């Protein structure tokens, strides 16, 4: 049995705990309401895009807006995707995506592995120089890069859009280096005792532990290449080599009055990004959070 003093102290604590818990619940409720309202505001353009893609031309600019059409015009998608060869644009885009993502994985992993696991003279200086290259605006190197690729005969090919990925990206190298440093060196030592070389240690032991970092690189690279408009605009002149970004831009200029067709095409083009983020969000958010803790 407790003493009278302890019983009185427990009775005093219980109302305080209930009051604190009540305040915390009210604060969480308030935060959820604010976040929900902000989410709805951010999703309004997306809802309008999908709604417009299912309307006929007469209902597109109806005021007040009709969010749910009386009847869904699914033929808008067929018309939008057949009047312009989006299948060819999609094939070109995903071809570029494949080689760029492969190049980023290989180059950034190898360079980050060298910076994180090997000791050599000037390592820190080279790493700082590499990070400093992020301070150079892309517009500064645009003309010299175009002249270089023009001298190589790469203009109007996919090479200027894919080959640079095999020379690494400073941000992704920094990201991979941070994750490499979070893995104990004991794994490397144990593998060396078993006779494993540097590349075997990298690809069989360390890379499987880097799934969050690789997911971040995959999502960011996919999004960057998928939305890239300037690169294909500069280097591609053959319409059969256009990407989705260029094709959608041409669609806008050709069918400015057909907003229902434009919204249908935009919805289809946006769909792969939604799928990527939906399946990668767990590793993406967790990977960025772990980077902040371990970095």
Detailed description of the structure:
With 295 residues, the chain is an all-alpha fold. The chain folds into 2 domains: 4-53; 75-294, MetI-like fold. It has helices at residues 4-53, 75-83, 86-117, 123-132, 138-151, 159-162, 170-181, 186-193, 198-206, 211-227, 230-235, 244-254, 259-294. Helix 3 runs antiparallel to helix 12 (244-254), helix 8 (186-193) packs across helix 9 and helix 10 runs antiparallel to helix 13. The chain is globular. The model has no long low-confidence stretch (mean pLDDT 83).
CATH class of the largest domain: Mainly Alpha
Percent helix? over 70%
Give the overall average pLDDT: 83
Low-confidence parts, pLDDT < 50 over ≥5 residues? Answer: none
CATH fold-level label of the largest domain:
MetI-like fold
Beta-strand portion reads: under 5%
Per CATH, the superfamily of the largest domain is MetI-like
Count the E strands: 0
Count of DSSP-assigned helices: 13
Overall geometric form: globular
- In CATH, the architecture of the largest domain is Orthogonal Bundle
């Amino acid at each position: 049995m407790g003493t009278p003093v302890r019983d009185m102290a427990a009775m005093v604590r219980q109302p305080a705990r209930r009051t604190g818990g009540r305040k915390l619940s009210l604060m969480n409720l308030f935060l959820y309401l604010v976040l929900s309202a902000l989410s709805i505001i951010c999703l309004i353009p997306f809802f309008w895009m999908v709604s417009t893609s299912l309307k006929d031309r007469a209902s597109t600019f109806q005021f007040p807006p009709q969010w749910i059409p009386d009847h869904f015009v699914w033929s808008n998608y067929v018309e939008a995707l057949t009047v312009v060869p989006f299948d060819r644009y999609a094939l070109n885009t995903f071809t570029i995506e494949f080689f760029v993502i492969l190049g980023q994985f290989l180059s950034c992993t190898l360079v980050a592995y060298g910076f994180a696991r090997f000791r050599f003279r000037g390592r820190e200086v080279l790493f700082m120089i590499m990070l400093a290259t992020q301070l150079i605006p892309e517009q500064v190197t645009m003309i010299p890069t175009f002249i270089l690729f023009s001298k190589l005969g790469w203009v109007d090919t996919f090479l200027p859009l894919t080959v640079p990925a095999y020379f690494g990206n400073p941000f992704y190298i920094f990201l991979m280096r941070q994750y490499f440093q979070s893995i104990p060196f004991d794994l490397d030592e144990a593998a060396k005792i078993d006779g494993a070389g540097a590349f075997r240690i990298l690809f069989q032991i360390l890379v499987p532990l880097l799934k969050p970092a690789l997911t971040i690189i995959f999502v960011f690279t996919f999004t960057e290449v998928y939305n890239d408009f300037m690169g294909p605009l500069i280097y591609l002149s053959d319409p059969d080599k256009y990407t989705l970004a260029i094709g959608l831009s041409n669609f806008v200029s050709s069918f400015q009055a057909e907003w229902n067709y434009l919204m249908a095409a935009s919805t289809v083009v946006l769909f792969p990004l939604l799928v990527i983020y939906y399946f990668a969000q767990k590793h993406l958010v967790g990977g960025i959070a772990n980077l902040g803790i371990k970095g």
